[in-house]
Design goal:
mainly beta; Methylamine Dehydrogenase, Chain H; five-stranded mixed sheet; 3 helices; 6% helix; WD repeat; WD40 repeat-like protein; Pep3/Vps18_beta-prop; coiled coil; WD40_repeat_dom_sf
Amino acid sequence: MNLELLDPFQQEEVPDIIKNYLEDGGNVITCSFNRRGNYVAGGCLDGRCLIWDFETTSIIREYQGHEDKITSICWSRDSNLILSSSKDKSCIIWNSITGNLVYKFKFDTPIKYSCFHPRKKNIILVCPQKHLPILVDITPLEEGKEEIRTLLRIDSEEIAAKTDYLGCFSRYGEKLYFGSSKGNIYVYDVEQQMSIESLKINAGSSTIKNIHISKKGKDLLVNSSDRQIRVFTIEENGKIEQQHKFQDPVNQFQWVQCCFSPNSEYVIGASDTKPYKIYIWDKEDGNLLRILEGSQKSLVDLAWHPYRRVIITVPKIGQIAIWVTTYQENWSAFAPDFQELEENVEYIEKENEFDIINENILEEEKKKKEEEDEEIDVVNIQRIMYNSDSDSNDEEIFFIPVKPDIVQSENQSFLPSQLSTVQMDTLTESVHSS
């Protein structure tokens, strides 16, 4: 789709109907858009990782490297790499173009969540189960060494071990925001290696189930087990202040997942009911705008398109649904001189509207325009800043080549061209000691 043809006056609307479904991949439990929004990555219950072409809704890649269900999946900023974590105690970095397994990391416990640094794809955040979060630098592996570096050393007494954590980076990756299973939120400075702030969301010990940062990096979204979704405002020094709380006061639903809209003006939350329901709130005033009702199955994950008014929902059983806005015809987009009228208007004819025009004068003006020299650049591609965090030096893929299906024999197997397996027992032990 041509990004410059999108109507800027309709970007504030929210999806309301299901238009299409992605090709059935079987038991998908998590999903993620790449930064441009033209591909969707998904993790399955049996350990497979899939990639869909969002325009054709078809599966174009399938990776097999995990032995248990996928817990999280994430794209690098340039969309060249995919990071997947699993309950089999491993994280794998895939090459999205070639389909090869690049690196594989083994831990002592299952991995709850992992993600790339928002600006540096050689740094990843790993949140093992019952462990402190780990920030890993894989640059030595790229240099051919069989070792990795740990950048994050959490030695704060406030952050306890043997607790589950979920985390996310700030917009530029200089700070980390952690949520614990005991209802605490921690703000950590990566460069200074120190804790900036810690707070408790309520008087109890509600488990934080999801934590997300807005695309502009000014708001933090937290979903907890006390049936409330909270929005925090991020100050310049990195500290946070609660702005709104969203909940269903009547039914008191538990929320499976939540996220921001691309412009950070809306918040959506998915209930754990059958059929599932999607609530859409206005972030500024906290008003409920719309409730979407899905299929008769419960929901496990959802994601909002990076810049379009599109939401995808992952049911527990069935295909991934694509929610879009109801299209309204606008004929002025096809005929620039066409005007939409709300009521009948009397047309007053101009005096010279049907006068005879001298064709000789028109031909002379036409020749002058044709003789004018105009430089047309047909080599360089003008970049479109389609995102609020777009940079002029960004390099990203535009397409993933599709390979034909090859039927392999029982005795033949295809292995990745490069496989690097790194044991990280000593790494996790060092984090415990710190």
